[in-house]
Write a structure and sequence with these properties.
Order of helices and strands: HEHHEEHHHHHHH
CATH class of the largest domain: Mainly Alpha
Distance between the termini: 20 Å
Helix content: 55-70%
Radius of gyration: 19 Å
Strand order of the largest sheet: 1-3-2
Largest sheet: 3 strands, antiparallel
CATH topology of the largest domain: Four Helix Bundle (Hemerythrin (Met), subunit A)
Strand content: under 5%
Structural class: mainly alpha
CATH superfamily of the largest domain: GntR ligand-binding domain-like
Number of helices: 10
Length: about 240
């Protein structure tokens, strides 16, 4: 009987990890492996296996898994422990409805405090998106563009929730963007949004953001209900 490959075998650990860095190194390493699909959806991550892999005790592993759970990358399931979460959790419409509320407020709070460098960074991400053909990188740049606009919101808990939603979207787009055909449409929305931000027109910017996210949920919902998506296997 052929043995299934162990997803953790794709993770390379270079030498001993200093104790004070163990949690952050484990968190970032697992996060990258989940986002790029080396550790697929549904994979159970057992604390002892990870402790052995990284050469540490179970305590920093437990802390790292809690952080990843807070970022919606893991679910804790009875009798299985920490399991890599689905690409889109729950109902896409509900997920985006919550994102619209959170991101609209973050944008509203951030715009009056944005500096020239923040706007220039957001514009650079749009330019990079126009030139990028790697769908994994497109998802990352999309997240960075939005966070550049929200970054000055003074409510740090709000920003963490916003980034969690963008992380979930980035992970989904890595595996599905090509089939969905969102590329250029998304950039038109981004440029219009950035123009309103540059003009410090808060209400116009929030209106454009809502339109952008609502357009996204329509396309994603249509795609998720398509035969292609329903028959698609978990990425490996």
């Amino acid at each position: 009987m052929t043995q299934k490959p162990n997803p953790l075998s794709s993770i390379k650990v270079n030498g001993p990890i200093p104790a004070h860095l163990a949690r952050s190194v484990i968190e970032e390493t697992l996060r990258s492996a989940i986002l790029d699909g080396r550790i697929p959806c549904g994979t159970a991550l057992r604390q002892q296996d990870l402790a052995d892999l990284f050469g540490v005790s179970r305590m920093p592993v437990r802390e790292a898994l809690r952080q990843l759970e807070a970022q919606a990358l893991l679910n804790v399931i009875a009798h299985k422990g920490a399991v890599v979460a689905p690409l889109v959790q729950g109902d896409a419409v509900e997920t985006y409805a919550l994102r619209i509320l959170l991101e609209s407020e973050a944008l509203r709070l951030s715009i009056p405090l944005l500096e020239k460098e923040d706007v220039e960074r957001a514009a650079k991400h749009i330019d990079d998106l126009e030139m990028e053909h790697d769908y994994s990188e497109i998802g990352r740049l999309n997240r960075l563009f939005h966070m550049a606009l929200y970054c000055k919101a003074p409510n740090q808990r709000l920003l963490r929730l916003v980034e969690d939603g963008l992380n979930e979207e980035e992970r989904f787009l890595r595996f599905n963007l090509e089939a969905m055909g969102l590329g250029k449409l998304s950039q038109e929305d981004h440029r219009a949004l950035l123009l309103a931000v540059e003009d410090r027109n808060v209400e116009r910017a929030v209106e454009l953001l809502k339109h952008h996210l609502n357009r996204g949920v329509e396309v994603i919902t249509r795609y998720l209900n398509s035969p292609e998506a329903l028959n698609k296997k978990t990425p490996r």
